[in-house]
Amino acid sequence: MADAILTMEEIEKSFPGVHALDHVHFDVRRGEVHALMGENGAGKSTLMKVLTGIYTKDYGTITYEGKEVSFNNTREAQDAGIVIVHQELNMIGDLTVAQNIFIGREFMKGFKIDDKKMIEESKKLFDELKIDINPRDKMSDLTVGKQQMCEIAKAISHQAKVIIFDEPSAALTEKEIEDLFTIIRDLREKGMAIVYISHRMDEIKVITDRVTVMRDGGYVGTLITKDCTKEDIINMMVGRVIYEDPKTESKVPKDAPVVLKVEHLNAGRMVQDVSFELRKGEILGFSGLMGAGRTETARALFGADPKTSGDIYINGEKVTINSPQDAVKHGIGYLSEDRKRYGIVVQKTITENSTMATLEKYMSGIFINKSEEKKITEHYIEELATKTPSADQLVVNLSGGNQQKVVIAKWLVRDCDILIFDEPTRGIDVGAKNEIYKLMNRLASEGKSIIMISSEMTEILRMSDRIVVMCEGKKTGELDISEATQEKIMNKATRDIA
Question: Which of 113, 248, 486, 492 has its CB surrounded by the most CB atoms within 10 Å?
Fold first, then answer.
């Protein structure tokens, strides 16, 4: 394998109250895919932001193509050939694909933008990547997977030599992930250096050549992927062994009362005649392929989307839920799969987010009881082991896993009896996942009832007492955990007859 095109040595970076990077080493070679792994808050994103000029390092050296470099902004890094493809796509929906790819560096014809030239150049990029996308299409009309491909094309258009993929598969279907891997392998064959940040262990073994692990802002070590096991990587990430055995039997008593009953729920094409029950202390898993209608069912139940028909009973009593306010009033909390859009306000503090759904409890007239508000927030920071210097930290400064814990804290402060967890561990690392699993099990043992929507089969089998399977907006089956297997779930997930 070729020599390193990029080396980072002894990188240090501190923020007020946080030593984010502590003498970190990282390198990537031409023609390799190098995974960068670690728990949320380990420093992976900070390291890449230092590399691409978003942050200025406090100490250390960056050597690129044999020369010491220091970029002042992402434009300088891009011009040098170092490009990052972010997890949260930075495309503008109302513009065309071609306009998005060349935004800020448009081809000009006199004083006018040369759209024809941009379309031609975009087509060349897609042909090179073997992608079937029309450059004239509006970006908002594309699937998330196709938008991701446009981000890659945009990176290539910068004459990239190093591409950083930050959680690229988090929102992709299995087919889209296969397409992504085909492109990455092709880029590797062309001698490009790829940095691949992901929490999905199975992907790391499939697509990468080496793995570097970080923990608590420090460098732990680098492994050759084919020579290590998944357990080796996890142990380096968290400093302990985490077991992921599936649940073999339900923990819910046979005579546990039904706390939620949904009958013949309909809400557009994606929710068709869905019925199910949830018992006290139960974790009810919702499984199915992308687009099966699981999230749409949860949103209709929570009142976030309008339902066309169906009945909802809570503790045997028929209730009307036409809005999230109605759902919260009846003791239902909803942890959205899109936490940044629906779960938290990132420019507010942990305290402000934690008490957002319960603010009336801390009001005295027109004033907020700040000390009580802070007291309950600090209780859940400790309870959930949220990594933060204080309750006054802005949520935008937290890692993804810790942001997720703030959303959970919001509903725990509200003391909801029924909790809907929609993709509760998406985009968070194996250590934080384990903490959230323990928390969910503890909540269930304390009598809370949980609906858990997950696209990860191992998560469904590990956590659920019972599993509802959906396909194309319909419930296609229900399995007790004692009889559930991946094969049975997949068989029902690909069959649209109830």
Answer: 492
